[in-house]
Amino acid sequence: xxxxxxxxxxxxxxxxxxxxxxxxxxxxxxxxxxxxxxxxxxxxxxxxxxxxxxxxxxxxxxxxxxxxxxxxxxxxxxxxxxxxxxxxxxxxxxxxxxxxxxxxxxxxxxxxxxxxxxxxxxxxxxxxxxxxxxxxxxxxxxxxxxxxxxxxxxxxxxxxxxxxxxxxxxxxxxxxxxxxxxxxxxxxxxxxxxxxxxxxxxxxxxxxxxxxxxxxxxxxxxxxxxxxxxxxxxxxxxxxxxxxxxxxxxxxxxxxxxxxxxxxxxxxxxxxxxxxxxxxxxxxxxxxxxxxxxxxxxxxxxxxxxxxxxxxxxxxxxxxxxxxxxxxxxxxxxxxxxxxxxxxxxxxxxxxxxxxxxxxxxxxxxxxxxxxxxxxxxxxxxxxxxxxxxxxxxxxxxxxxxxxxxxxxxxxxxxxxxxxxxxxxxxxxxxxxxxxxxxxxxxxxxxxxxxxxxxxxxxxxxxxxxxxxxxxxxxxxxxxxxxxxxxxxxxxxxxxxxxxxxxxxxxxxxxxxxxxxxxxxxxxxxxxxxxxxxxxxxxxxxxxxxxxxxxxxxxxxxxxxxxxxxxxxxxxxxxxxxxxxxxxxxxxxxxxxxxxxxxxxxxxxxxxxxxxxxxxxxxxxxxxxxxxxxxxxxxxxxxxxxxxxxxxxxxxxxxxxxxxxxxxxxxxxxxxxxxxxxxxxxxxxxxxxxxxxxxxxxxxxx
Length: 702
What we know:
The protein is built from eleven helices and 37 strands. Strand 36 (625-630), helix 10 (639-651) and strand 37 form a beta-alpha-beta unit. The protein has an eight-stranded mixed beta sheet with strand order 29-30-33-32-34-35-36-37, with helices on both faces. The chain has a four-stranded antiparallel beta sheet with strand order 2-3-4-5, with no helix packed on it. By secondary structure, the chain is of the alpha+beta class. The longest helix is centred in the last third of the chain and has 19 residues, at 669-687.
């Protein structure tokens, strides 16, 4: 994802309506925030030591040694499946099945079902998603093999058979199996001509026996969410320069259509060219086609044939960051035909269940469930099981991301089937975030404040702690509050954290999400700076020890804040963008026109790109920067970090560049550990802090 800037905003003067959830939500004021969490233990037993110099058992090795990434929970014919991303195995993704009674079970009560050494991951859009295709039983499970990008049939003996042709020409994602189990309908990305402008995306049918394929929808730049009901094929499609959260179309064809051109298929929604339509799904009983649209100003759920939402709300459905990955589905249907959907309210997830079986009426019999009913603070990816059982991934500030089981009738506390982390720490080490709202150039912005916390230490020498501001990637995405050991790593050492949902973030409605239109590098930078200054003003952060970090788009915001503002004293960019012009001409297809909407047309507005590129403003840089980059990154090529590093070297600014054998984002344990420890050591050198057991880090020009 991508970037930052310095020109007037497209939406300048925008104000939130008084009924917006942004103004209705309960936010923490500065008077409700404090540093008192650092003194949870009796002061007589605590060690008085400067902020940032506390020792902590939350080490980088502890984080990676007992942690995996969980995703893609699915219930199939009595079994629960999920994907694990394992840093200790070079980041490979493994399909697992819940088997608590198996002698071969892991510490997460699962057994591997994908072949040993296989990596279950697709590279469609580079970000992937939808790498596993489930039919109705265990004989109908297929997955994309990362090394070859071939679609493989998973066999009961733990082996697999490729069903698509050899070579790396095709990539597949977001598939569904036909009712008879003989065909897969999926998104196919054709890299016969690998240049981004020549990559072809289509929807195809794949014969599972001989691998033969037929193109069902073609002619547009992108496709997602192929969904089949009888002879009907529904799908989402869009063209450059739009991204899926900008403007898409929902179209319907028939499987026996004589034309595979999308322009010949029925247009259901998105005719105005300025509405985002996502996640279509057929109702299993009525056959009604439901979908999510942001035409009301929020991602609400609609039914084909109705001009009004069947569930109008001033909250976003569809997940935390819809559009970035394939296979996303923010709602589902329960076994009795009721709709089950999740949205976020006041920093907590809500499960909404409603009757949508009457094709001529809006949703009825609406029931909402939350943490008071036994659900975790945050959750998503709901999937129905047997009866009234549901499965999902969730967590809280003190509970790592886990796979849960919960019953709609009996309720009670949701049961954890598998947890992403083996880490277990005392509560006096865990900093619980407070959601805050602070003033900025377009009204207000939002974030989560974590105070320093470690029951072993107190600080009577510093008036306020160093603050690390975090800028999330995307930029059209958001942060969250589930347990994040990478944040607790800092707070348990005496740093405060501000995790910012700057203007342009998802989850706050369309107007807030669109604040970045033509204004990347303006709004995001304004907001991260405003958040830091707000906390300094309130006595919750040391103005002389403000630092910022971010990955990908957050890395660009980081570099932009350091180049174009004088707020932060140091920063770390993880695979971030320094040169917008280079990114515009050297990235993969999915994001190759993303900057048209965030910055402007290229090369027509090249001057604007240069004005907003941190690499072009090294003369204004005056504080140390750490650059962490993967050498195999296709989203943000490594030459971006190298160019920035060389510019900093020439100016004599303290800097360090570390290159890793990684793609976009770090997946290998040793690299995750080194990146985290290097950033801590870097700030230690910059701010003159005595970091316990700091790694040896060579910083140039210091």
